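User: Reviewer 2 asked us to show a designed sequence for the structure in our supplementary figure. I'm pasting the structure tokens here. Could you produce the per-position amino acids so we can include them in the response letter?
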């Protein structure tokens, strides 16, 4: 009969070689820059990872406990600082809010061990952002572990370390966490489907914890294999660069000879469990939505971003690469800057700026001001009276029949149509033959575009003539109505 396992909630990276300072496992300053350390009084006690928003850290709830058995549902965010280790050095960022899973109770099975930190300001531009893994096929996959904390080795366990260092290595998920329920390891059962478990293999079958205690044989990944130990709590396990697990706890089997040190110290032959991120997508999304209420400044990084506002008048800046920017409710300012960006204002009177490269800008409801900037942009106003300026390049202005106005003075306005260069896209199968082009004055002369024989006014093209618009109409390629 398998006896209960000893539990610790302090995982960190322990490596398979006998040198705890082996440089092969130390993360260079230009890698895994979105994996952060954080703690109180300037110290690092836990690890987390930066989500796509650039303002939220996914981590473990137990990092904020009062003690091993007493949860802290309302930690004081002003006591915590997040540290980004970047090529330019260590950058501290304050914490404004902490979201602890509402069902975290610090039970002995560590159920619901997940939390989200909201940063007081956007992360540094050079810090990587990570998406979450939404698949349910994690078991059997190789994971990349990254974390801070006390160093250690497989043969000797943990080593005293006053300088938390970011280290990395691999492992493989062996089973779902509820496998521990089969032997009654905890007083509280592990919630089915919420944890991902693995062990620290030496390559010797005697130290294959899952093989010897559960019949899941795997001798590990050789020199790439690492275990988790204290200080790495809350740190990510990546699958294909996405956050699949959050380091939660470690347990030592009591069958003699499996754990090489016979102590729960992150040595060969021990079990570990991550909180399964795919089981907590609604919690993560809800925390982010709640934190995005109010007026926020969100900035991206040099890579690809997906940034979304919510209630409040938000300013969202994509910065480098190809970004997706979503405004949410109220009156937002969205700037794509460098890259081929996709920008949507949603509700409110929004300002959308594509800036460089080829952008897609969609105003959404209400009256928006949309500027493409440089590049070949696609601009669409949707509902409300929108003002569209293409800027440099060959731009396409989309006039939607589904958003047509019945009052000619309330139509979308195209301000800088360039004949022979720009195009006007039509939706719902309309062609130029279905249109009536009429000279009109709407705070300046131009051409009113109307569906022939109807009172459906699609748009007004300022400073244009009927002749300059003829032959400039094309079919919409975005699938708009």
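Assistant: Here is a per-position design you can include in the supplement:
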């Amino acid at each position: 009969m398998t006896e209960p396992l000893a539990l610790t909630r302090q995982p960190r990276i322990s490596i398979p070689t006998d040198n705890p300072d082996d440089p092969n496992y130390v993360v260079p300053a230009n890698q895994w820059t979105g994996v952060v350390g954080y703690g109180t009084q300037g110290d690092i006690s836990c690890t987390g990872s930066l989500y796509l928003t650039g303002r939220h850290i996914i981590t473990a709830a137990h990092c904020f406990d009062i003690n091993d058995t007493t949860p802290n549902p309302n930690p004081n965010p002003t006591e915590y600082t997040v540290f980004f280790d970047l090529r330019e050095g260590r950058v501290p960022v304050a914490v404004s809010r902490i979201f602890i899973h509402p069902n975290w109770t610090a039970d002995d099975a560590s159920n619901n061990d997940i939390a989200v930190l909201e940063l007081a300001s956007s992360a540094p531009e050079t810090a990587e952002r990570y998406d979450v893994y939404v698949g349910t096929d994690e078991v059997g996959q190789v994971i990349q572990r990254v974390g801070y904390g006390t160093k250690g080795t497989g043969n000797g366990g943990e080593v005293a370390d006053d300088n938390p260092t970011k280290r990395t290595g691999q492992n493989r998920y062996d089973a779902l966490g509820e496998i521990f329920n089969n032997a009654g390891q905890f007083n509280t059962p592990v919630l089915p489907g919420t944890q991902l478990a693995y062990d620290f293999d030496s390559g010797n079958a005697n130290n294959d914890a899952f093989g010897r205690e559960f019949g899941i044989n795997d001798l590990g990944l050789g020199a790439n294999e690492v275990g988790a130990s204290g200080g790495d709590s809350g740190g990510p396990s990546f699958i294909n660069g996405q956050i699949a697990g959050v380091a939660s706890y470690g347990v030592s089997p009591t069958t003699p000879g499996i754990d090489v040190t016979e102590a729960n110290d992150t040595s060969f032959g021990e079990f570990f469990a991550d909180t399964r991120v795919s089981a907590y997508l609604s919690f993560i999304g809800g925390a982010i939505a709640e934190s995005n209420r109010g007026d926020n400044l969100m900035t991206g990084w040099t890579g690809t971003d997906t940034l979304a506002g919510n209630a409040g008048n938000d300013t969202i800046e994509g910065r480098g690469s190809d970004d997706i920017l979503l405004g949410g409710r109220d009156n937002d300012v969205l700037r794509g800057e460098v890259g081929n960006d996709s920008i949507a204002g949603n509700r409110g009177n929004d300002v959308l700026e594509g800036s460089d490269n080829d952008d897609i800008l969609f105003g959404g409801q209400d009256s928006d001001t949309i500027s493409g900037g440089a590049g070949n942009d696609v601009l669409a106003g949707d509902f409300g009276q929108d003002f569209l300026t293409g800027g440099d390049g060959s731009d396409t202005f989309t006039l939607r029949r589904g958003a047509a106005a019945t009052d000619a003075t309330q139509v979308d306005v195209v301000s800088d149509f360039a004949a022979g260069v720009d195009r006007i896209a039509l939706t719902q199968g309309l062609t130029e033959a279905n249109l009536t082009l009429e000279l009109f004055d709407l705070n300046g002369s131009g051409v009113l575009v109307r569906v022939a024989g109807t009172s459906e006014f699609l748009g007004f093209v300022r400073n244009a003539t009927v002749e300059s618009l003829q032959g400039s109409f094309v079919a919409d390629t975005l699938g708009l109505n």
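For the response letter, you might also mention the following. Confidence is low (pLDDT under 50) at residues 1-12. Helices lie at 209-214, 281-291, 466-469.
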